[in-house]
Automatic annotation (TrEMBL):
Every Peptidase S11 D-alanyl-D-alanine carboxypeptidase A N-terminal domain range: 135-368
Organism: Streptomyces koyangensis
Biased composition (Low complexity): 22-32, 409-420, 434-443
Recorded GO MF terms: carboxypeptidase activity
Ranges in a coiled coil: none
InterPro entries: Beta-lactam/transpept-like, Peptidase_S11_N
Domain of life per record: Bacteria
Region (Disordered), start-end ranges: 1-39, 408-443
Polar residues compositional bias, start-end: 1-16
Keywords (A to Z) from UniProt: Carboxypeptidase, Hydrolase, Membrane, Protease, Transmembrane, Transmembrane helix
Residue spans of biased composition, Gly residues class: 421-433
Record-given protein name: D-alanyl-D-alanine carboxypeptidase
Transmembrane regions listed in the UniProt entry: 445-466
UniProt cross-references to Gene3D superfamilies, sorted A to Z: DD-peptidase/beta-lactamase superfamily
Length: 482
C-alpha cells in the first residue's frame, strides 16, 4: 500500500517492521509510549522542533501475518424490510448528556439482531467467557469483530444519540473517494462562514490554497470543522453533502443515523448510535486513504502564504488519545484509528479499531458519565481488552449487517442464511467509489476485512457479510496485492 504523499512524513512503524497501517506521521513522533518520558506540549500553531534520529514513538505497531479469509454464514436483510424499520424508528431529539435520568427508548431498531434492539447490556456469559469490565458508564457501547461482523457484546446499541465529531467518519466515507487528493483549492470567505462557534479547527484560512490531501489531514487529525466545510463546498455545498451522507447511511443500513451538519456540530435531530458508528467505521476502513489518515499521529499543515516568502507549515496532531498516548492516556497496543468526538450535547464519543494476535476489533463508546478523566478512552480500552479475551469464547449477540447493495447483488431477499461457497460474492457497495476501495484485488474469496503484507485491506468483492473463517488459498505465497 502506497504511503500518502506528505512532505517529511514517515510510516508509523519501527525500522524493518511492517505496520498495520502506514500513516503520514513525522519520524520520531513527539507523543510518549509506555515507559518513556513525554515530549513537552507545543501550543496549537506554534513552530515545533521535531526530533532527529529518533525511533518511532510506538513500541509495537500491529505487525502480524495474513488473517484467514472468511466464509459467509449470516442472514442477509432485504432492503424493503430495512426501509420499514427506518420508518418505524424515526430520528428524534436525544436527551442532553447532563440529564442523568435519560433512559433508552423501550423499542429500538433490531437491525443486526433482536437482542441489539433491547435496552441494557447484551452478552452471552457462557463457560470461559470473561466478565465484562465493571467500570463502564457509556450510555451506549458495542464490541464487534471487524472481519466477520460478530457483535460480541453491546449496551443500548441502537440508542440514537448525538455523535459529535464521530460523524466525520461518515463524512469521509462519503466524500473522500470523490475528490483527488492532489487537487488544489482556493478557499473563500463563504466556505468558512458557516463554521459553528466554538468549533474545533485546523487553521484553514480564506484566500489560501490547499490540496485535498491537506484538508483531509485537517479533518482526521485536528477534527477541523473548517476543513470539513471547505471539502463540502468542493462536493457541491453543505446541503448536497448532507444529502449524500444521509444516502450513504441508508446504503450502509445505518438507519439510526440522521445528518444535519457534516462536521458533527451539535444540531437538532443530528443523531447516530453505537451500532451505526461501528458500521460506518467498518465501511471507512475498507478504503486505503481512510485507513492511512485515521492512523496518522502527526503531520504538517500549510500556514499562510505571504508574498515573496516560502509558505510556512505548522505541526498538527491526532486528537485520538489512544493513538497518540497524549494527555494522560496510555497509547493502546495495536490501535489504528478511528475517530473521537466531544460536544456539549453529545458528551464524549469514540470509535476505535485495534488488532491483537491477528484479530481486529471495533469498539464504540458514546457519552460516558465523565466522572473518570478521559473516560471515553479508558472505557474503550477496557472493552478492547475484554473483546480480545472473549472473542474465541463468547457467542455473538448480533451482527454488523452488510450494505443494501451487497444484499441486492447477492440476490437473497428472503433473509435465509447462505451456507454456500464464498467464491464470487456481491459487488462492493457504492458503485465506483467502492470499486476504488476494492483495488486490493480478489481471488474470488468473499471477505470483509483482512490483513495482507501487514496492512488492513479489502480483499475482494464479497464484503460486509458475516463470515466463518477458513484458510486463504495460497497463504504465505505473496500472491495477494496490498
Amino acid at each position: 500500500m502506497n504511503q500518502l504523499h506528505t512532505p517529511k512524513a514517515s510510516r508509523n512503524q519501527e525500522t524493518g517492521r511492517l505496520s498495520f497501517i502506514r500513516p503520514v506521521s513525522r519520524p520520531g513522533s513527539p507523543f510518549p509510549r509506555r515507559g518513556r518520558e513525554p515530549v513537552a506540549d507545543v501550543p496549537f500553531g506554534a513552530a515545533r522542533t521535531w526530533p532527529t534520529g529518533a525511533q518511532t514513538a510506538f513500541a509495537r505497531t500491529c505487525t502480524f501475518s495474513i488473517v484467514p479469509a472468511l466464509r459467509k454464514t449470516t442472514v442477509l436483510v432485504a432492503s424493503t424490510a430495512l426501509l420499514t424499520l427506518s420508518a418505524a424508528f424515526p430520528a428524534v431529539a436525544a436527551e442532553k448528556p447532563d440529564d442523568d435520568k435519560a433512559k433508552p427508548p423501550g423499542k429500538m431498531s433490531e437491525i443486526g439482531g433482536a437482542r441489539l434492539g433491547q435496552a441494557g447490556t447484551q452478552v452471552n456469559a457462557g463457560p470461559g467467557v470473561p466478565k465484562l469490565p465493571k467500570k463502564l458508564t457509556g450510555r451506549s457501547w458495542i464490541v464487534a469483530d471487524a472481519e466477520n461482523g460478530d457483535v460480541l457484546a453491546a449496551h443500548n446499541a441502537h440508542w440514537k444519540l448525538p455523535p459529535a465529531s464521530t460523524m466525520k467518519m461518515l463524512f469521509a466515507d462519503t466524500v473522500l473517494p470523490k475528490l483527488p487528493k492532489d487537487e488544489e483549492h482556493l478557499v473563500t470567505d463563504e466556505e468558512l462562514a458557516g463554521v459553528g462557534a466554538g468549533s474545533s479547527l485546523v487553521g484553514v484560512k480564506e484566500d489560501q490554497t490547499y490540496t485535498v490531501h491537506d484538508l483531509w489531514l485537517g479533518v482526521f487529525l485536528s477534527s477541523g470543522n473548517d476543513a470539513v466545510h471547505v471539502l463540502s463546498a468542493m462536493n457541491g455545498g453543505i446541503d448536497q453533502t448532507v444529502a449524500d451522507m444521509n444516502a450513504r447511511a441508508e446504503e450502509l443500513q445505518a438507519l439510526d443515523t440522521h445528518v444535519v451538519s457534516p462536521d458533527g456540530y451539535d444540531a437538532k435531530g443530528q443523531l447516530s448510535s453505537a451500532y451505526d458508528l461501528t458500521l460506518i467505521a467498518r465501511s471507512g476502513m475498507q478504503d486505503k486513504d481512510f485507513r492511512e489518515y485515521c492512523a496518522t499521529v502527526s503531520a504538517e499543515f500549510p500556514g499562510e502564504k505571504k508574498k515573496g516568502k516560502k509558505r510556512e507549515h505548522f505541526g498538527i496532531q491526532n486528537t485520538n488519545r489512544l493513538l497518540t498516548g497524549a494527555y494522560g492516556v496510555e497509547r493502546y497496543e495495536g490501535i489504528a484509528g478511528v475517530k473521537n468526538g466531544n460536544t456539549t450535547n453529545a458528551g464524549a464519543t469514540f470509535t476505535g479499531v485495534a488488532e491483537r494476535n491477528g484479530r481486529v476489533l471495533l469498539v464504540t463508546v458514546m457519552n460516558p458519565d465523565g466522572k473518570e478523566s478521559n473516560a471515553v478512552y479508558q472505557e474503550t480500552a477496557r472493552l478492547f481488552d475484554w473483546g480480545f479475551q472473549a472473542a474465541e469464547k463468547a457467542e455473538p449477540v448480533g451482527t454488523l449487517v452488510p450494505p443494501v447493495s451487497a444484499v441486492q447483488a447477492d440476490g437473497d431477499a428472503s433473509g435465509a442464511p447462505d451456507e454456500g461457497a464464498a467464491g464470487g460474492g456481491p459487488a462492493p457497495a457504492g458503485g465506483g467509489e467502492a470499486q476504488a476501495a476494492a483495488s486490493g484485488g480478489s481471488d474470488g474469496v468473499g471477505t470483509a476485512l483482512a490483513v495482507a503484507g501487514g496492512s488492513l485491506v479489502l480483499l475482494g468483492a464479497g464484503v460486509y457479510v458475516v463470515n466463518r473463517r477458513r484458510p486463504l488459498p495460497g497463504r504465505g505465497t505473496g500472491s495477494r496485492r496490498g
